[in-house]
Recover the amino acids of this structure.
């Protein structure tokens, strides 16, 4: 189970806990499952496992561990994702064509790098904060890929008419969502962004002042039941509800429901990591695009929150951070039966919430030096920010300042929505 | 020549002045020139002339002038651009395939609608402010298309190896740009957006408060000479200067310079409305994408301004609005030889300046009721705001609050850049 | 009206008759009509008019008329179709983007080349058979483009929701097609190909021996009425009737009927050069692809003839060649009320008949020397031969040995089918 | 090792020998290797293994073995290749996305079907010639897929920068090719096609008469050394050597050599099933498209043979059929040191030889009844015939009448060329 990482040092056991969690998630998959790239956005499980290993090899072992030689020269090419400063790389959309190294060979690669990382941590990291920072970055990077592995394998199994399952269905029942409540936040200056205490990504900084006007925020996520009402009201066929680009997209793609929803003789069903099941009207809707979130909000007479509004509200009115992720069971936290007045429910760890904010640098943003500076900054165009963390997000990645981001037409992540309005 | 429209009423002569300017701009073109759609973004001149006429027919004459019958039923289909509420429409990318109505037949259509509009203005508009508002919107809409006509015909002629010219080269010489100066603006709360006095588009409202941090803004646009330095320093081949999506774009498209630039044995030349000429190093660079503007700024150790920063600076430190557009000669205003301390030059009417701001609704934004509500709001995704107006912009469209917007890869408008930095 | 060209000499009046016919066909079109390229296969009328002029300029005037200078250097680039040996050329799919030269300017170009050609014919051709051959080739080339002009403008008008007409509907009525008869041809050796007497294209030679087995050939073309039966029997939805590639094509393209057919409340209608009219069940079906012709034949328990079978039958049992084309009225020859026993009807000048023969060189085929050698040979792959000539074919192009060819998915030519079977 | 199948009966041991050979070929591959579809034309090894099993299940077991139930209903959908009459099927280009069933699960499927087939053969086939014919068809079908498995895995490994090898390099050396000799065949009537004795595919019949003119045929295949001369003479850059469509293809694809050839500092190398090695100038060139074969022939002043010419020559002058395939070592038969006068070398079992003949039905061709009638006939358009068999072809598939066929731009099969000329 992933854990929030302590900030002041990195122990071998911290390192290995994250590495082991990756292998635990992959252990349910056959070598063939780990091979598939079901669309260009998806990477094979095997590739994820190797790439996050390459990260440690490239940014820690090769430059810093004396005498370390590359495990395999070709891996530098095969498992570089997008780091221009780390040299040329294999074409992203062809990751599924690489049968070798096999899944077992990747396991061996991981073991080799782990052993060397143990040496590096024991011998060098203790005395060098800069290396500790890099190790921590590598571990958070690996955790991000743990979430991607779950998102991706869900899509891989979706493309297979046999509809394999990733794991067993959890033995839980949902609590009733109840009526939507609202909280009101007054206008004023707010400090937005991470304060630098504990681990964070560069895109969460610098903390800076923003004027946030008065607004209202829904006290929970929109449910599948509410989404069915939108569909029943012809939401997918009423052009005036949609952004022009969104309307063109749903026409072209033939979208009539969220991703993974399927009509059956007994109503809408949904594909999950634990199989196909009937829609649960009390669960939060997920796997919707920005366009769909925006259209729903317009239909509901509301709008999406900005990321500043969301962060301000989450910091002051959010429920406690979840004590552990629900990743490999794809389930949502039970809703409190009676929400406390003026608090927000489901703010952390259920669904990534679309905001209306385009992903952009904060005032004064400076990416890190060197290749790891490519981690976030170069993607700051034509993407929209999502906040809050989903059921597949490692716990250490759930915080008020965390900025996730996807293009407006992406749906394969666990993306939902929370409404906002003017006061 | 277009003129700023008075706000309190609309006279037939105001109306006809704008309509006549459109015809004056088209008069230099053959029927064949008016037929061409050189890429999906471009519309044929003839289509522009008909579409802006359709706007008056659809939103004024048909609903409000008693007894008015459509000039031709098919025109409702052919010349609707994107108004879902006004019914189905011809495919945008096939506008160049419509040989009939001919250019002459469009002229007859315009005359018919003009005559009816005269009646409507004389008989109805005087007593109804709502109709006066719609007429004014129609005229500003027509002026926007005047600029598009010039942008589009420039591209049409670019695709022709014969390189026809639109008009004669103006008999002017550029003044030296001189070194780049900077102005500093202090942090504070600013009122952003139009105050509602005089004509404006809905996307400029509501005026609202924003906190704008301290920043510095360059006192003029980046010149072609400076762009040549960027190119000479391998700016188009250094991946770390580019947004990831921008780098992919310039690789795919093979971009090595701004649009319309061509290498020749005697150096870089540029295609203009008045023919091909050598690059003038003192002129502002135009026809660059957001990606290129952003990469240049990174290379220069600076960034693009936000639209709030730009608006605040333009309102307080901008030079006076130009007294007339330079549209059909594609020339730039001469730079003042000695800029006054702390003022901004070339802020209005030279080049559309890319900002780093994604095009989004202002807090509390509400589109107009009915089909004209589709004018702006539904485009508010995956586009970036440009400010300031260019040499082809009608004078009445040059103001501190005006928001132009284009996708990040667009280059066929007169787009340039002005640098900003933190203080 | 085009005429069969005498073989032993070329007179100025012969030349000018063909040239004038081109202009007569174009005279019904506006400058805008002449500008349109409605799909990559289609060329603008204006381009046709210029290209066939370029042919004379490039292959006759420039190399052979002393002192002749190019009318416009750029035309060498703009109006070369596909002759690699004649230098680089404008991209085929962008022919519709060239507004200049205008239609009027092309008229002037034609007049200039005509005057020079008159000189060349008077002064040089009389004494040089090789030049006479080239002039004749140029004139037959121009006549081929006359047919293309009609095919292309029909498609251009089809893409326009206004459905303009090219000319008036002819005042004729169809005769009843009557039941399909069959003729039987015995097996034996046959001489296939042109004997070299009179004008012919290189692809019709050399005449050579083939063994043609016994076969039966339908005595007339398949009618629209018969095609409606195929459609009513779900012909477009029964996979086993189709070649695999054909089935994929009709799925992808959504074909449910021949090109230009449209369902209406009062039954199927068809777009013609003289407007939209109800399907006439006695007319031959045209505008079908090879895939459709093949599927129909399979449905009917028959097959397509080979080109050898067709040529052998046409030479021995065909009706007389038509005395003039019906090009610009798009009508078919009336069927003889009582066909003579053992003769073939509609063999010449009604519809291009798909054969099952892939377009290939005859044994011993040698293309002409020089650039005109690119005329036919280099297209001999992945195309199928059609025989017989259609209602838009100039009379001089209707003969038993003439080989027309198109890719299997082409439909915008006047293509129909005649059934064959084994004996 | 595959063997030519006896014609009069089918024994369980015959059946199992072919089935075992498939597994022997797959045994060298990891589960991951068996998963990859490196381009739409390629199928995963695992898919091949399942599909050829599905063939027996669908056409033999389900209709004929009493009480047989489908092994897995979903396999009917997943492993149908293109048989419309056998129901809907998985999209061809998504075969690589199906991780389940795994390679091991396919092995179990094969064992299950084998056991049932043994029963069917023992109990039913002995008494029913029609079933024996279907079993034989299934086995020949499986052998065709054995060749495809080798072609496909070669391509799969080519797409992997690690360049895995399929097997060990054979310990052989080539004999010198020596100068090209020619044989002359006189004109006359020839019987073309299979005489019906022994197994054959429907497309080889009916045997029929053709007139074959006099021609000369090269006595061996074109070598890699000769191909290097073509390249050195700028063969890939001289437009006049190419069919128009071929020229467009090599421009678009950037082809400068046969598939699998790579330039290195020490000359051209080639990727094979046993690794990358320097070009051997005495080996036959393979992995060329029809376009390249045709261009080479034109460059050499020759042409490709027709399939009739090839068959006539092979039957009368060909060397003996090889006694076994060389499939899994990718090597060529050694050339006889001193060819006998008037005989043809390398006619069988070295490279598929492009002919100039489009793939078409023989006169009187009738596909088999039922779904297996889709085996050949529906592909008879836009493909070209290849003759002779290659180093990966099972021995029972090497005969004078065998017709292989591929689109003109295909290169991943072992395709070479033999020249022909007129006499």
């Amino acid at each position: 189970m992933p854990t929030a990482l302590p900030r002041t040092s990195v122990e071998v056991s911290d390192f290995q806990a994250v590495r082991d969690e990756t292998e635990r998630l992959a252990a349910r998959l056959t070598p063939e499952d780990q091979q598939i790239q079901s669309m260009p956005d998806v990477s094979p499980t095997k590739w994820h496992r190797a790439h996050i290993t390459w990260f440690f090899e490239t940014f820690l072992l090769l430059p810093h561990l004396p005498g370390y030689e590359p495990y395999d020269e070709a891996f530098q090419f095969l498992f570089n994702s997008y780091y221009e400063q780390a040299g040329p790389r294999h074409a992203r959309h062809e990751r599924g064509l690489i049968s070798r190294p096999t899944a077992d060979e990747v396991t061996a690669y991981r073991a080799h790098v782990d052993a060397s990382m143990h040496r590096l941590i024991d011998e060098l990291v203790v005395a060098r904060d800069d290396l500790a920072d890099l190790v921590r970055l590598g571990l958070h990077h690996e955790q991000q890929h743990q979430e991607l592995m779950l998102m991706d394998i869900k899509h891989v199994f979706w493309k297979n008419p046999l509809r394999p399952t990733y794991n067993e269905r959890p033995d839980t029942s949902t609590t009733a969502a109840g009526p939507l409540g609202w909280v009101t936040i007054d206008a004023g200056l707010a400090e937005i962004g991470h304060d630098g205490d504990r681990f964070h990504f560069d895109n969460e900084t610098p903390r800076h002042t923003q004027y946030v006007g008065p607004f209202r925020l829904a006290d929970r996520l929109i449910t599948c039941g509410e989404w069915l009402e939108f569909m029943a009201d012809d939401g997918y066929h009423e052009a005036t509800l949609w952004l022009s680009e969104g309307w063109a997209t749903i026409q072209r793609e033939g979208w009539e429901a969220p991703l993974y929803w399927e009509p059956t003789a007994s109503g809408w069903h949904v594909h999950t990591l634990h199989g196909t099941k009937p829609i649960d009207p009390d669960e939060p809707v997920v796997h919707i695009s920005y366009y769909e979130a925006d259209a729903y909000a317009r239909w509901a007479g509301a709008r999406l929150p900005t990321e500043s509004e969301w962060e301000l509200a989450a910091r002051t009115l959010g429920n406690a951070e979840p004590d552990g992720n629900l990743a490999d069971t794809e389930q949502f936290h039970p809703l409190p039966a009676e929400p406390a007045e003026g608090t927000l429910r489901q703010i952390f760890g259920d669904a990534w919430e679309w905001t209306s904010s385009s992903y952009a640098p904060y005032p004064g943003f400076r990416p890190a030096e060197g290749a790891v500076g490519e981690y976030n900054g170069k993607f700051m165009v034509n993407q929209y920010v999502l906040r809050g963390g989903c059921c597949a997000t490692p716990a250490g990645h759930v915080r008020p300042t965390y900025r996730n981001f996807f293009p407006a037409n992406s749906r394969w992540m666990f993306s939902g929505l929370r409404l906002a309005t003017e006061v």
